[in-house]
Amino acid sequence: MFEVRNLSAAYGQSQVLHGIDLSVGRGEIVALVGRNGMGKSTLMKSLIGVMPARSGQITVDGVNVTALPSHRRVANGLAYVPQGRQIFGTMTVKENIETGLVVTGNSEIPREIYDLFPVLKDFERRRGGNLSGGQQQQLAIARALASDPKVLLLDEPTEGIQPSIIKDIGRAISYLRNLGQIAVVLVEQYLDFARELGDNFVVMDRGSIVFSCTRQNIDEAALRRAMAI
């Protein structure tokens, strides 16, 4: 469903991503972990097109999106929930979610989105800026899902979120995976959360992938050592 091959990117003359290879199947979660400042969020920005690639290729369901602008990548099935959520604070919950519908041509929010996050239905007329941090994170994910994605990129979805909502978000991500239709790339500092959800684990260090393993052959001690490099 989602393939990244030899992806490199740079800020000016400073290369920040070095030949990244990543593959995510339908109904699979790849957890991308590592210390702060090691290139995880930079990779996500490059995948969605905020930061252009210097070389390499990104494909969504067989379609090469590497040269496309962000909105065209979304139209081709790539959805992004950025670190810090970035919802529209002055718009209502319903209006925020509706912005995700634009690429689908639909005007009605799918019932399944409210089933995943019932609190958003309760607060659909409330302004996004008046929600708690955890509710805003649920809203950001709902907005991304409204675009009917094939691939969902989640950048630090548990950052600054209360434990009860972390559990709700985890259940929602697990549910999406179990539907078997969406590929998920999860960037996460909270290793226990990533450990619960990931099918494959990838550690980044200084813009490169330095370690990877599957859930089946996970060596948690080696994974933690790689994260501490």
CATH architecture annotation name of one domain: 3-Layer(aba) Sandwich
CATH H-level name of one domain... which superfamily? P-loop containing nucleotide triphosphate hydrolases
**CATH fold naming of one domain:** Rossmann fold
Uncertain stretches: none
Based on CA atoms alone, the radius of gyration comes out at 17 Å
SS field, number of helical segments: 9
N-to-C CA distance:
31 Å
Strand order within the widest beta sheet:
6-7-8-3-9-10
CATH first level of one domain: Alpha Beta
Largest sheet: 6 strands, mixed
Portion in beta strands: 25-35%
User: Given the C-alpha coordinates, what overall shape results?
Assistant: globular
Q: Give the structural class.
A: alpha/beta
Helix residue percentage: 25-40%
Run of helices and strands: EEEHEEHEHHHHEHEHEEH
| Whole-number mean pLDDT | 92
Question: What is the strand tally?
Answer: 10
Could you characterize the architecture of this molecule?
The protein is an alpha/beta fold and 229 residues long. It has a domain at 2-79 and 148-227: P-loop containing nucleotide triphosphate hydrolases (Rossmann fold), CATH 3.40.50. It contains 9 helices and 10 strands. It has helices at residues 40-48, 70-75, 93-99, 111-116, 118-122, 133-145, 163-179, 191-197, 220-227, and strands at residues 2-11, 14-24, 29-33, 55-60, 63-64, 78-81, 151-155, 183-187, 200-205, 208-214. A 6-stranded mixed β-sheet has the order 6-7-8-3-9-10, with helices on both faces. The protein is globular, with a radius of gyration of 17 Å. The two termini are 31 Å apart.
